[in-house]
């Protein structure tokens, strides 16, 4: 690789900024929740979780720890499995009415993302829900400088939301998801207890595992930060700032981890080594993409979840249509990396090596194909849908999919290769089946 990937470009950024929370990892560390929340100054806690976790041992242990530290706790669990504006509006009322001095979230990405946004909207209300989203979709209203202290406790090994300044929300009226991104959304602390993954069903380990894989792979292959335009005001430097030497480190390790442990973690719930490693990898990938941004894998997933119909997924307690986020991302990924590799062959080759792709006799020119072959193999071995036709799409859907995803402008522009609407259509067409 080389530093040449980050060589200066005329008019390009010359600095990058990294933000991660204080971070604790270990089996049983949820028992630290009370001490940690207290140290953050919390006395009255708004605890966010979802209805399926509400009676779980994880939530019980956090509530017990908070109580032992002498903190008052009120619980909010009216969160859908895909965080949406309606959940946030309910959560915002909970925050506005609760007189809290801190928030604890216990759950997957939807719970943590809802907690972040509920503080924003509850403490700093706006007339139109889209006001805080970036133009052209939203009003681009500046966010406040501070929210309440937030202790994030993930219970799945995928989103990495405990380490990011991002909240991904489904906007009901627009039938698709958009991203709120601002440093103020970063949790103050993450408490990551891999024991939460011991009882995850295999399909959830698979879909969240592919999410973490794509976070890491998209970060490592993203456009270099030096190729984004220079932002004179450092406060306005976007979180989607492109690949950078710091994010390379967690992204590379996350690729090694998911390459080594994904199949084992899906196959055997008792394989604590694999499931613990996947939880660690999810946080690493979150630290990476929270400071890089994703690119085409995530951008094209939004068209999939926008237009899905009559499809559901076992192990997820949710009505059709539903495709888990990680699956919506991995479906197009083999076609995407076949497409992007020519723009940064060395980067793709290194990523393929981290992911333990078969590189016998391969050169960087073969990296896109090596990555695609490896991803398709992992999809087959873990029993997830392979290609868009497997989740109900047909070639006739390609223009609508591309039109929907084309709205994810910054993520598309974070790809290493310039990508037009026609290119997106070609990728979707190639992703129908493998
Ligand atoms: Fe993701």
**Which regions have little confidence, pLDDT < 50, spanning 5+ residues?**
none
CATH class of the largest domain: Mainly Alpha
The fold-level CATH name of the largest domain is Dehydroquinate synthase-like, alpha domain
Strand content: 5-15%
Element order: H for helix, E for strand: EHEHEHEHEEEEHHHHHHHHHHH
Let me know the number of strands: 8
User: Given the C-alpha coordinates, what overall shape results?
Assistant: globular
Spatial sequence of strands, sheet with the most strands: 1-8-5-4-2-3
Helicity range: 40-55%
User: What's the overall average pLDDT, rounded?
Assistant: 94
Which molecules are bound besides the chains? Answer: fe (ii) ion
Under CATH, the homologous superfamily of the largest domain reads: Dehydroquinate synthase-like - alpha domain
Any idea what the CATH architecture of the largest domain is? Up-down Bundle
- Biggest sheet, in brief? 6 strands, parallel
Radius of gyration: 20 Å
Count of separate structural domains: 2
The secondary-structure class comes to: alpha/beta
* Distance between the first and last residues' Cα: 30 Å
User: Count of DSSP helices?
Assistant: 15
